[in-house]
UniProtKB/TrEMBL annotation:
One of its GO terms (cellular component) is cytosol. This is Aldo/keto reductase. The keyword Cytoplasm does not apply. Gene3D superfamilies: NADP-dependent oxidoreductase domain (3.20.20.100). The keyword Glycosyltransferase does not apply. Pfam families: Aldo_ket_red (PF00248). Residues 16-308 form the NADP-dependent oxidoreductase domain. One of its GO terms (molecular function) is oxidoreductase activity. The lineage of its organism: Bacteria, Bacillati, Bacillota, Bacilli, Bacillales. PANTHER family: NAD(P)-LINKED OXIDOREDUCTASE SUPERFAMILY PROTEIN, NADH-SPECIFIC METHYLGLYOXAL REDUCTASE-RELATED. Keywords: Oxidoreductase.
Amino acid sequence: MKYRRLGTSGLEVSALGLGTNAFGKRADRETSIRLIHQALDSGVNFIDTANIYASSESERIIGEALADRRQGVVLATKAGLVRGEGPNASGSSRLHLQQELEQSLKRLKTDYVDLYQIHTFDPYTPLEETLRTLDDMVRAGKVRYIGASNYAAWELMKAIGISESRGWTKYISTQVSYSLADRTPEQELVPMCTDQGVGIIPYFPLAGGILSGKYHSVKEAPAGSRADTDPNFGRFLDEERIALGRQVSRLAADRETSASALSLAWLMTRPAVSTVIVGATRPEQLEDNLRSVSVDLDPELLTQLNDLSDRFRYAKPFAWYRLP
């Protein structure tokens, strides 16, 4: 496994991280625990979850899986998206964040999280309130580092400026949809993060499985795929991205690797990317993803991948989660 600094912080994370959105949903408890242990045994040290994944079941499963292995794991979770009903059940207010952190710590069976992330920008709460709350959490020892997710470049830059002016802990990372099928972050977010030393953590690095090459049309969902098990995922499918998946598959076959490994390896070459989080629901799927760390991308192959995906720099973002 290869390790990189998360932004310009001193924290080292594995180039490939484990995303756990499917744990407790598309992957049952036993399979999820086996996947976590498999990842750790392979050198993965970054595990990413959120308070809302699988109705909080993801955090509970991770807490159980890490009962004897918490040391050495960089554990990341999030809060801010809608958690339930009521006027304070979402957002980045002091009330909501403090409440959600305490509940996440209980489910994760730990007294701290390594990276606490705001799941999306909250236009209804002053940034000063959110950032001061996060700084207090760090000072209390319940959080070690803080990160953002689904922030526009200007929102992230504003937050960094406020933290710097107040002497508060700054965001060291940001999560965003980023892949060969979604290069929109390269317009503003990537240059900003490169300049400010913020580490990018791509989510949907395989565009929900499209870049694995398993989809052949919008109307046909392969058995067991995300579109098959989650009908709502169908809104992400379009023929142009499916065609890209087929093109990447042909390039991968020529080099005797998988489309998934090739797509993940490409992301690892991008400026400011610190760790690429990718999910799995089967051990063999995780094993294939792990091969991405050792894929050799020569200049010719990089050029081909860049050219094939260039049109997705100015397309509609693949995913973008915001508060209503």
